[in-house]
Write a structure and sequence with these properties.
GO terms for molecular function: carbon-nitrogen ligase activity, with glutamine as amido-N-donor. The chain has seven helices and no strands. By secondary structure, the chain is mostly helical. The protein folds into two domains: 85 residues, Orthogonal Bundle (Hypothetical Protein Yqey, Chain: A, domain1); 51 residues, Arc Repressor Mutant, subunit A (Orthogonal Bundle), CATH 1.10.10. The longest helix is centred in the middle third of the chain and has 24 residues. The radius of gyration is 18 Å and the shape is globular. It starts with a helix and ends with a helix. The model has no long low-confidence stretch (mean pLDDT 89).
Length: 146
């Protein structure tokens, strides 16, 4: 399980003295705990992947804002955190694999215009899961439907 892997990696980061990785993983662990408490659910790998994707999205947004403000050192910190968090997600689909998956969904739904975009994205996200982020799925669906 991802949560157990994160806990083990926190311990190994503490032993090796890697404070950056330790702090990043502690933040992720606290995000897991927060969801467990707020939603009163047991964290499984599906929920863990959603949380990790959410944390990555937050860091991408922050890195973009830092770059716009010419704060490259802070942007680099966010990007290093993304790198650590991404290692817990399943292998991400490349563009051609993503296109093939979404094309299959479009065919199965008989979607043929941008009016069907919402349904295509919804079914694609369920099918693809954590193998791609929502932004990529949305962009590819728009491209294929237009």
């Amino acid at each position: 399980m991802i949560t157990n892997s994160v806990k083990d990696d926190i311990k190994s980061a503490m032993k090796s003295g890697d404070t950056f990785k330790r702090d990043t993983l502690r933040m992720l662990s606290s995000a897991f705990k927060q969801v467990e408490v707020d939603k009163r659910v047991e964290i499984d790998d599906k929920i863990a992947c959603e949380i990790i994707q959410s944390e990555i999205k937050k860091r991408n947004d922050s890195a973009t804002q830092y770059k716009a403000a010419n704060r490259d050192e802070l942007a680099q910190k966010e990007l290093k955190e993304i790198e650590i968090l991404s290692s817990y997600l399943p292998k991400q689909l490349n563009e051609s694999e993503l296109e093939a998956e979404i094309s299959a969904v479009i065919k199965s739904l008989n979607a043929n215009s941008l009016k069907d975009l919402g349904e295509v994205i919804k079914v694609s996200r369920e099918k693809i899961g954590a193998k791609s982020d929502g932004k990529s799925i949305s962009q590819m669906a728009k491209k294929l439907l237009s």
